[in-house]
Amino acid sequence: MAPKQLYWSASFTHRDANLFPEPTKFDPSRFDEGGDHTLIPFSYVSFGGGPRMCIGKEFAKIIILTFLHHLVNRFRWDLVIPDEKVEYDPTPIPVKGLPVRVLPHIPSVP
Ligand code: HEM
């Protein structure tokens, strides 16, 4: 008899409406600490969990936060293909590589 295999995917857990109501809605408040939303342990697992959890988690979050801060404040950016298809293998991969058009903000006149 062939051995049974169990396959688990973080991205499917993250889109489980039992864990995250309206999972595709952009709602950063769902991660607020002390609010109405209490995250169930091991439900948000982008960096894994337990003793082998990603050692670069906090470093990666600071780098991403800094990058997004500059991208949002200094540039205007548009998706080149707004309705680009995303495939899951098992992580989400935009089929065309998610090209964006980045333009500097026009400086405001004092
Ligand atoms: C967005 C960025 C990142 C994501 C999503 C990510 C995600 C992950 C995940 C899912 C694991 C496996 C955890 C587990 O098995 O439970 C892992 C392990 C690991 N990550 Fe990251 N990671 C990121 C950035 C980084 C950075 C910047 C570093 C180093 C500077 C790093 C170093 C490591 C190492 C060394 C492990 C192996 C830990 C071990 O096996 O004990 N990662 N990461």
Describe the structure.
- The protein is α+β, with helices and mostly antiparallel strands and 110 residues long.
- The chain has two domains: 38 residues, no CATH class; 58 residues, no CATH class.
- Helix content is 21%, strand content 15%.
- Strands 1-4 form a two-stranded antiparallel ribbon. Strands 2-3 form a two-stranded antiparallel sheet.
- A hairpin with a 3-residue loop joins strand 2 and strand 3.
- The structure holds protoporphyrin IX containing FE.
- The site of protoporphyrin IX containing FE (HEM) has 12 residues, from helix 2.
- InterPro entries: Cyt_P450, Cyt_P450_CS, Cyt_P450_E_grp-I, Cyt_P450_sf.
- GO terms for molecular function: heme binding; iron ion binding; monooxygenase activity; oxidoreductase activity, acting on paired donors, with incorporation or reduction of molecular oxygen.
- Its cofactor is heme.
- Its main location: membrane.
Please give the number of β-strands.
4
The number of distinct helices, counting runs of at least 4 residues, comes to 2
Q: What would the average pLDDT be, to the nearest integer?
A: 88
Largest sheet: 2 strands, antiparallel
User: How many structural domains can be distinguished in the coordinates?
Assistant: 2
Helix content: 10-25%
Query: Cofactors and ligands present?
Result: protoporphyrin IX containing FE
Strand arrangement in the largest pleated sheet: 1-4
Portion in strands: 5-15%
Report the end-to-end length measured between terminal Cα atoms: 76 Å
Query: What is the succession of H and E elements?
Result: HHEEEE
From the spread of the alpha carbons, the general shape counts as extended
- Structural class determined from secondary elements: alpha+beta
Radius of gyration: 18 Å
- Looking at how many chains there are and whether they match, the oligomeric state comes to single chain
Low-confidence stretches: none
